[in-house]
């Protein structure tokens, strides 16, 4: 197959699809103000477009899963790290865990940056995939 034949099979999302995919990724920024509404927005976009656009549905589902992992799972992990650190501080071991707990606390700061990068890529029509999440979502979505 020639390079031209390969490029002709590549799907080019419409302007509307790019906009909705971008909004799905930018929903992570809503968490900065509300704490939890970002995944709800990504879920609504996914449900609204799952039968209309595979591109938008895939991008929104990735955004939803990333936010659930980082904000919900990460929040629980950070809380547990600080609880363990606080309990162990009485025996001095907890002092060694403070840097680890601080590092875990930075995860919610990284997610919005990653979401903005994804939003920029999808606004340009790229098929953005989050690291680890994108391939898993694609395999379950296509399966």
Key descriptive features of the protein:
143 residues; mainly alpha; single chain
SSE topology:
Layout: H1 3-8, H2 15-26, H3 31-34, H4 37-49, H5 54-88, H6 93-105, H7 107-123, H8 133-142
Question: What this model shows, in words?
Answer:
By secondary structure, this protein is an all-alpha fold. It has helices at residues 3-8, 15-26, 31-34, 37-49, 54-88, 93-105, 107-123, 133-142. The chain has a domain at 14-70 and 108-137. Helix content is 77%, strand content 0%. α2 runs antiparallel to α4 (37-49) and α5 crosses α8 (133-142).
The percent range for helix content is over 70%
Q: First CA to last CA: what distance?
A: 27 Å
- Classify the secondary structure makeup into a structural class: mainly alpha
As a whole number of angstroms, the C-alpha radius of gyration is 19 Å
Quaternary assembly: single chain
Low-confidence stretches: 1-8
Secondary-structure element sequence?
HHHHHHHH
Our count of helices gives 8
Overall 3D form? elongated
| Percent of sequence in beta strands | under 5%
Q: How many extended strands?
A: 0
The main β sheet shows up as: none
Mean pLDDT: 81
